[in-house]
Design a protein that fits this description.
With about 375 residues, this protein is α/β, with parallel strands linked by helices. The protein folds into 2 domains: about 210 residues, Glycogen Phosphorylase B (Rossmann fold); about 170 residues, Rossmann fold (3-Layer(aba) Sandwich), CATH 3.40.50. It contains 16 helices and 15 strands. The strands form 3 sheets. A 7-stranded parallel sheet has the order 3-2-1-4-5-6-7. It has a 6-stranded parallel sheet with strand order 10-9-8-11-13-15, with helices on both faces. α1 packs across α16 and α3 packs antiparallel against α4. It is globular, with a radius of gyration of 22 Å. About 40% of the residues are buried.
Length: about 375
């Protein structure tokens, strides 16, 4: 098969990283893989050499024509009059440019069997296209329908499209939106993200964390949805009531950092909690931790849970909306907690004190590159 993966950019981000992983997964399973991206700014990821990489600068391509310059000015001007309508004009003008560039690419390499477009920001560039080969991957639980313009946006993006969701939780959210807005699609399926276990294991051996004590780790942006204040409260309870001796390491940065620093100070945990900020390679910290603790309210999938499991580290998680249950199933389900500091603290102690061996390979089987590639083939090409 010949597959094209399309993403808005290759900057640092979960969606961008997964787009690279997906392209490499098809290549690993002996398919021809192409990765197409639109924005070149802050490019941080590159696939391995077997994946054919293409930069489609759609806006520049449009502006190289005289009519394109006028269309660009028109869309910017109209957006001033009617706020947040730029996506509509952007897609209307740029989709034909994308279609032309794709046609040029297919003249060189041959026709694509599937074109997998990832993320709402990428959909906005191509929304007018109704090619039955296009699969739009929905990554997020947060689909905005709070006002008329947001609802119009979703109707443009979803109508008569193949939609694929990264988890059963996202699929449930998508069906709610489709029913609410009376949108008709070609199909809605669940196809999750592949995880590159070998790469994660390799990166986890890059260094040994500079810490002498046993520790629990959390990786994620310091923000409302990731809900680290609950983790800190549960950690404080476990230290005071359940004889927890471990340190707590938080990896990530964000707009909750000041609030978290104040919480740590108020609870007198300055010597117990380590804030490392953003790390480009957190995997050694995951590998050497006794436990990965996750308190998110909602996740499209919860990819960092898979990363922790790939490092063969036990996981305790809140039972948040979205894809967390898709990861924390079977023998891992006993480590799910409600949003209660006492219960979460108890689950952490259960995981730390439980001698039972986790079958990490079995827990990750549904997310292996081979499993994901085969599901695309069964779902969209078997007929």
């Amino acid at each position: 098969m010949r597959i094209a993966i399309v993403v808005r950019s290759l900057k640092i981000g979960g969606m961008e990283r997964v787009a690279v992983n997906l392209a490499e997964s098809f290549l690993e399973n002996e398919h021809e893989a192409h990765l197409i991206y639109f924005k070149n700014k802050n490019k941080a990821f590159s696939p391995n050499k077997g994946v054919k990489l293409h930069h489609f600068d759609l806006e520049k391509g449009l502006q190289l024509t005289i009519i394109g310059i006028f269309l660009h000015i028109f869309s910017k001007w109209f957006n001033i009059l009617f706020r947040r309508t730029y996506f509509f004009w952007q897609g209307l003008f740029l989709a034909p440019v994308f279609k032309y560039k794709l046609w040029r690419l297919e003249r060189t390499y041959g026709k694509f069997d599937l074109i997998i477009i990832r993320g709402h920001g990428t959909f906005e560039f191509t929304w007018p296209l109704r090619d039955k080969r296009i699969i739009q991957m929905i990554e997020s639980m947060f689909i905005q329908t709070s006002n008329k313009l947001a609802r119009f946006n979703i109707k443009c993006l979803y109508t008569n499209k193949h939609l694929a969701c990264v988890s059963s939780g996202v699929e449930e959210e998508v069906h709610k939106v489709l029913n609410k807005l009376n949108i008709k699609t070609r199909s809605v399926n669940v196809i999750t993200n592949p995880i590159d276990i070998n790469s994660i294991k390799k990166n986890s051996k890059e260094f040994i964390p500079d810490i002498n004590e046993k520790y629990i780790v959390n990786v994620g942006r310091l923000e409302h949805n990731k809900n680290q204040p609950l983790l800190i409260d549960a950690y404080h309870y476990a230290k005071n009531h359940l004889n927890l001796k471990h340190k707590l390491v938080l990896i990530g940065d964000g707009n909750y950092r000041k609030r978290i620093e104040e919480q740590i100070k108020d609870l007198n945990l300055e010597s117990d909690i380590i804030l490392l900020g953003f790390l480009s390679n957190p995997y050694p910290w995951l590998k050497y931790a006794d436990l990965f603790a996750f308190t998110s309210h909602a996740e499209g999938l919860g990819y960092v849970l898979l990363e922790a499991l790939a490092c063969e580290t036990k996981v305790v998680s809140t039972n948040g909306r979205g894809g967390i249950k898709d990861v924390m199933k079977d023998e891992l389900s006993i480590y799910l907690s409600n949003f209660d500091k006492v219960e979460f603290a108890q689950k952490m102690m259960l995981a730390l004190n439980d001698d039972k061996k986790i079958n990490f390979e079995a827990a990750l089987e549904d997310f292996s590159p081979k499993s994901i590639v085969n599901k695309y083939i069964r779902t969209y090409l078997s007929k």
